[in-house]
Amino acid sequence: MTSPQALRESLDGKWRHVREQSRTELAAMDLAYDHSLSLHEARERVLGQLKQLVDTGTPAAGFRTENGGTGDPGGAVTGIEMLAQFDLSLMVKAGVQWGLFGGAIENLGTERHHAMIPGIIDLSLLGCFAMTETGHGSDVQSLETTATYDPSTDEFVVHSPTPGSRKDYIGGAAEHARVAAVFARLITLGEDHGVHCFVVPIRDQNGDDLTGVTTSDCGHKGGLGGVDNGRIMFDQVRIPRENLLDRYAQVDDQGTYSSLIESQGARFFTMIGTLVRGRVSVGGSASAATEVALSIAGRYALLRRQFSGPSGEVVLMDYRVHQRRLLPLIARSYAFRFAQNQLVARMHRIQTESDPDPIAQRELESRAAGLKAMQTEHATRAIQEAREACGGAGYLAENRLTTLKADTDVFTTFEGDNHVLLQLVAKEMLTSYAKEVDGLDPLGMVRFAAASMADIVKERTAAGNLIQRLIDARPGADEEHDLLDRGTQLSLFEDREQHVIETAARRLQNADNADPAEAFEMFNNAQDHVLKIGRVHIERVVLEAFTAGIARCEDEEIADLLRDMCSLYALSVIEDDKAWFMEHNRLSDDRAKAVTAEINNLLTKLRPHTELLIEGFGVPEDTLDAAMLG
Amino acid sequence: MTSPQALRESLDGKWRHVREQSRTELAAMDLAYDHSLSLHEARERVLGQLKQLVDTGTPAAGFRTENGGTGDPGGAVTGIEMLAQFDLSLMVKAGVQWGLFGGAIENLGTERHHAMIPGIIDLSLLGCFAMTETGHGSDVQSLETTATYDPSTDEFVVHSPTPGSRKDYIGGAAEHARVAAVFARLITLGEDHGVHCFVVPIRDQNGDDLTGVTTSDCGHKGGLGGVDNGRIMFDQVRIPRENLLDRYAQVDDQGTYSSLIESQGARFFTMIGTLVRGRVSVGGSASAATEVALSIAGRYALLRRQFSGPSGEVVLMDYRVHQRRLLPLIARSYAFRFAQNQLVARMHRIQTESDPDPIAQRELESRAAGLKAMQTEHATRAIQEAREACGGAGYLAENRLTTLKADTDVFTTFEGDNHVLLQLVAKEMLTSYAKEVDGLDPLGMVRFAAASMADIVKERTAAGNLIQRLIDARPGADEEHDLLDRGTQLSLFEDREQHVIETAARRLQNADNADPAEAFEMFNNAQDHVLKIGRVHIERVVLEAFTAGIARCEDEEIADLLRDMCSLYALSVIEDDKAWFMEHNRLSDDRAKAVTAEINNLLTKLRPHTELLIEGFGVPEDTLDAAMLG
User: Fold this and answer.
1) Of A111, B312, B528, B571, which has the highest C-beta tally within 10 A?
2) pTM, 2 dp
């Protein structure tokens, strides 16, 4: 019998010690959400739990040593992700305080602001991250809140000029936060320099709104009952000039604005880019919650029997349709785990370098955006399926699945709406592509595309040599079971990405010269095509990460199992997009049918390992906390 | 400008008067779910609302005049469906009391039981429907609760012999129900006659459990907070012999069992069949809730602007991706409305006939099962998409979408798990098919299939002549825009169904002669194929109902709009299953691409009518109750 330990180690990645610590430490804390509490009580309880976390080391890990932290960003993100296995309200509260609010202070502020960090770590200073407004969430560059410099008092005046400029959905704003990191348009000497971040005290020691500040409560939500989301309006609130987080732009006491980054757009995106950790945490947490849900539904499917078979009542997992419902989702969760481990390691490396490469940084942001979108989409779909796969029992709160679903539901929206994020990834890909083909006329571009395969797509996102070797060694399409060959799968993914980018680029190549209305029309008509770029790119990234992860696994039995899981992931992705592969002559009718047949073979092969596969997730059985599992 | 009135009338169907009455009457009742209440308070509130409904006529409509009702089953089902537009807890409470519990008493009982009906209508007798057990939900024939006749006292002894035999998830069992319609195995003179229904008092006037009865509470659920779902264990509970609902089977005072239906299976399914109204109501209610969600998300998409376009910020609905997200779902909801209207009319006709045709009854059951599965699946998907399409605002309870999602979530499970229901439809289709090809050897079967198109599939489910005419008049596949032709669409749907049934039948034809383990294996390997039969059959039924509905529309402008919506429905269904059509040579690569192109054309054409299309649902704007709509 293969040991789950080796499988778990393979999936746990570099911050295994953080995972192992959390598994025991958090299990001892009684973190399960209590549905019988009122909103206010639930929030107080989660705040209490947050205080218990201070000593675990996770909060300090997120900050640099010179600011009072321990300088382990990978550990910090992994620690937050582990919270998601226990309670998502707590995960979000932690993410807001230490990740978003603390991250803004550390990354956008300078020394004088960093003095706040010890208080942020130990919760003596509770903050919130006031970016989104009622009128603007996705398009944050168009935020309306203003911070106007008044040289006569050396202060900024923070103001909400319209109903739409109200800060909205802000975690911590309804009850707990004393201070807000407020994103507002910096105006000085009559000029609007775009959105910057300011430290604005909002409540006094008694929790009452300060003068000019009006907070209110978003009330009940679809889930996350322990998070006090609220709204903030500012009526000419004065703050010292020093409250501008001034790492990337400064205002002197005369009101003169200066920044080393000239373009307003570039400056804004540089600032936003430093906050990448939020997306990494949300993607990882969505995945962690999904693993819990699949662990619950998978274990139930191994216990529950229904309808008579040849030898008594049949266990659910023995039904082909039930295997089809759960195993491909488990495979996808495996794939995302490898991709997330890779992303966290890369983030950690970049964020601990003294002089990180701006291109690597930008790639990290794009990768984090795309993975967040795909992981949260997977979470929504997989947790829903897990709930339904448990029937009526799945609908009871005591079995947790509905809570996991309700709590993660907003993950597709916050830290960037998934559709917007996938477009961001696509734009990055298209820009890189355009650079490659720069200067080519349309005909030249087609020739280029056909003849040389754009390097931008061929660039490996992981274990480059290995992946190229696999692709080069792939069998012919007429060989039996060629679809199970990793090189074939990698090549199908890569080829699809290449084609989708090229054809989109061709559709859009004249947009630059068109008038604005025409250009909008061209882009809008191609919008679903553009979104597909983001999706297929990330699907390739994930497959490459899975492939690289298997190569690192030293236990041959476990590696074999992972190889089957990886094929199940790859073929499920291909099956979901089968029509595309057929329309574009990448799969013949017969090979398309073979995709489904191979998936069914894999299900038969993997079925006996269901329990082991669940144990691989490393959610200890006694922390699943689902009554139906006994 | 086309009037929404004519569109609404077309969609409202035969029980328009009930819909119109509900729209004003229910709006005046303050039915919106209140999330600030505790579970107990929410339940009390919904019970109070239920009492307000007594005088609306909906409860009485569900019962025959001779029993104290007004004999309008179509009106009763439509009335329940309308409740779903306001609050789903109330809809479920009403469905349990008047539909399931009342329906069991009326349809399975005889005169002496019918005396309870006036009390059921006016709520002086609150009941519950105790079918599902912890161990058996989908496979109700295997329920374990026993009702053993004791001739010495002329009583049945109701008993829960195992932990798995506990009645579970029973609406009303936690607090309100005084009496239960209990499904239990009837045992007399040492013989088990299978599952029958018994009237069992469970609580006294004070709400305390009666001797031998132990009720408990399912607690918090994913939604439906106003429904008091609970559990019941019976410890040798004695009830008079007369409490057997004895329309289909009787036991005399000697304990002799008799029934006009000889086979235990046939008897059970005859009894269950009389309860078809539950499924019709759940499907209709899921659709109604979906219409509310799409009305909210659709109206928000017409208000909300984000990101700059050529002339200011762009309204969400102008984005192609947003059109793609919402309009096909709206088209599908239109399609289901026509199918539901047809189903309700058929149900009404059969249930008001003095001597209904058993074949028609069986078809009704199958249709209701399949439509319930597809409508509730659509609800889950569409409400989720509506929530996401409204971003952060969509996550606030004040905008209702999360409540609609949470409340309808269990609809895919209760009144029959969707997977089980689709298999039921498939079995019905395969049985009919087998009858047609009976006696043919495998070769003969292939010949038969190729030569004559099985009549069972060709049988029209609505407006037979019209649909045949459309199919006969369809253009060639090489004609431009042929995919927009209704005959082409109908023929693609019909042909797919035919092929899926035939190939499944061929895969399974040897199962009868195989040993049980082999037969199970054969069936299990084909399980996803079998499920597909149910799905494609219902998709055809729905398309035919939509087609017939348009033919009845007298307003030409509205009919034009409906024609486009019908094409959007048909092409969306084809797009979702494009790989199948290509694998089976029903669509060439080019025509497959044309499907997507035609959908995009339809979106452009329908976009200007979005508001009208939403108004067609007939959910008055002031009852949408979503704060973000202002």
Assistant:
1) B571
2) 0.97
